[in-house]
Amino acid sequence: MNKNKKYIILLFCLLISSCTFFTQYGRDYKRAHNQYIESDYDKAIQYCIKSLKRKPDFKKSLKMYEELVPLAIESHHYNIEKYSNSPNSPDKLVEQFEKLFSLIRSLKEARISKSYELYIKSDYSKEYNIALENAASHHYNKGIDLMSYNEKRKYKAAYNEFILANNYKENYKKVKDYIKECKQNSIFHITIMDFENNANSQYNNLGNSISNKLVSDLSKTSSFSDFVNIVDRKKIESIIEQFKLSSSGLVDAPQNELGKIKDIDHMITGDINKIIINEPNHTYDRIKIQHQIQIGEETIINADSTETTQPIYGTYSKYIKKHQIEASVSIELFLEIIDVETSEIINSEIFNSEISYTDKWTTGLEGIDPVDHTIRLLKNNTTKKSDPSIEEMLQKATNKVNHKMKNHLIKFYN
User: Fold this and answer.
1) Are the beta carbons of 223 and 407 closer than 8 angstroms?
2) pTM score, two decimals?
3) Gap between the Cα atoms of 239 and 104, Å rounded
4) 401 contact partners, CB below 8 Å, separation of at least 6
């Protein structure tokens, strides 16, 4: 046996004898060690706990656990002191307390040892309550400052600050009143007009169905509907008619006219710029292939002197057809958000979507055995599928573009 083989066998025996490399508790120990090196002491402790749950007397994990406990607790104490001296970091201070509390709970529940009691304080409640008070005060004051701008988006930002303040300290000062006030003042009142179809008169009702679906989808999205009120466009259509405004001419209206549309902040209008329909187009290619036909039999004598009959094949040519049907529908929409008070376009975007369909099948392969393997595979697809209608494809394209517009509006108002 050469030296290399001896070395490999010796190494294998050492690995087997230790077993650590091959066990789950050993792998958890290795992960704990890696986190230890990265100074993520909390995570390292969690892996040690996992290892010791699987093998409570595993000395390597026990030793590392006892080393990690004081390091993890001291790390949190250090961060608590650091953030306590930084008035602009109240959230981080509370977060450090909560991470420390979570660590202590894990150490208690693990019941590995009580050594952690040597490093923790008997009571953190006073310091923690001060931290919560400071965090609540920080966000409360920030909310009041944002309210002073008297602007919808600022009110929404203030609402979020008051929510945080209330999370830290429930019913802190006048926080509940301010939450209610800010939510009410941050709501945008919008209306979504029928989209004008400038592309294809065959689909005149498409603009109405697009706007209706957009209203429906947005109304079902709580992150949008909580802060945006969609006003039924029918309530303002008569006013628009009085001003003889088309949805495409709203921005040309005199400011004093468009401003008379009360209780509406923004008007959303749209145009269908393109509807491109490629009807199903059936094409095919004629392909000459080679296939086999049995033309007889022959008898052969085997090595053990027995006889076997096997077929004789002849190779012949034949034409088959490879068919293909392709169809596609694409649509392009232009969307505008108009400030009713100023008649200004405050946002505009173009949205596109396309739905395509392709079906491929082969005829002429029935009952034959092609020589070429790639042609033989075509026998798996010899049936034509049922083609979708253009109306179905157009519906899918409009659903797709509606989804894009919905996400755009959610992002704009958030």
Assistant:
1) no
2) 0.73
3) 66
4) 210, 331, 333, 351, 352, 353
Please give the Cα distance from 272 to 395 (Å, whole number).
Answer: 14
Long-range contacts of 373-377 (CB under 8 A, 24+ apart): 375/287, 375/289, 375/320
Report DSSP state, residue 405: H
CB 239 within 8 A of CB 261: yes
Beta bridge partners of 200: none
**pLDDT per residue as tens digits for the range 6-25:** 555 555 555 544 555 579 99
Identify the three-state secondary structure at position 164. helix
Query: How many Å apart are CA 376 and CA 286, to the nearest integer?
Result: 16
Specify whether the CB–CB gap between 291 and 314 falls below 8 A: no
Q: Which helix (H) or strand (E) holds 104?
A: helix 90-110
Distance in angstroms (rounded) separating the CA atoms of residues 151 and 157: 10
Chain centroid to Cα 140, Å, comes to 32
Count of beta carbons in the 10 Å neighbourhood of residue 344? 11
Place of tokens 């953030």: 83
pLDDT one-digit tens code per residue, 121-138: 999 999 999 999 999 999
